[in-house]
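Please check this:
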Amino acid sequence: MTAQPLPTPRVLLGPGPSAVATSVLEALGRAPVGYLDPELFEALADIQAGLRTLFGTANPFTLALTGTGMAAMESCFANLLEPGDAAVIGVNGFFGERMAEIAARYGARVTCVDAPWGEPLDPERLDRAAAAAGTPRIVACVHAETSTGVRQPLEPVARVARAHGALLVVDAVTSLGGLPVQVDEIGIDACYSASQKCMGCPAGLAPISVSERAWRVVEGRRTKVTCWYYDWQLLRRYWSAEHAYHHTVPGNLLAALREALRRMREEGLPERYGRHQAVSDRLLEGLAALDIHPFAREGYRLPTLNAMALPEGLDDAAVRRRLLVDYGIEIGGGLGELKGRVWRIGTMGESATPRNVEMLLGALGRVLA
């Protein structure tokens, strides 16, 4: 028997990717240009300007790496850490664990400061760990922990980093474009994200912004960066006025990102952030009526990724499968220790609409009934 085809297109309400607007898809489908084409250089300049506004920074090295958010995470540790450097990393979810794993692979002496999944990091514990580490090269944390739905306050972590002379590295994969990041105001030295979540663009690009303070560390390295592809000093030569060849950048993806940034500018960032919060609030209200409640502690919940604790006895995989097969709606399951215990429902970018939330609530009500 032939399997029943799944509904198309999907309603993407998982942890990413999110929906992509028609104008962004049209930009993606335009005729390619070469990686040294003047038209592409014009697009690169527009992208850098748009990303600086989004990151809240004047950093010259603000651009979109070729690759996903994980590529940007790895590039930060590859460029900022040398073997033997101390790294203090806050871990309160799956992606904090990944930070620690990658930093260790680059030879860092990693100190993990753990917090229960669903809770924010404790700045006092971070401070004690940084003091015990001596002079840490970096303090790192996840702003929007995609595995738990926790929004980490960044100001206390920034104070810890500054007190110990460390660089602050922040994962903003599930926050950039959905809530303020404020790189310069907070004092973040390296901040990275991904194109496929709140930015409403296909996967494959990783926005990043690096402070001048961090650049001094990069330029003073004792050893070469071991990851050639993501060596920031080489990449800077292509994205600057020199435009020295490094690799063949994905021009069509960059055209799509340029259009996505234009749409964000047209909507207005305060309005965009307000939309994400309003849609998330409506989702939580509707789920509460089904006796499904947030996993993350109140006051620290993301408006972009809603981690919902599952009622006792509910068959996680079966319900998500019914939503996908019968209604074409995708939501995500738990990662790591939360597998089978939470749903991860994204209200990000183009997917963050009242219509999508009402569709999900209606479908979920019927499936659970």
About this structure: The mean pLDDT is 96. The chain is about 40% helix and 15% strand.
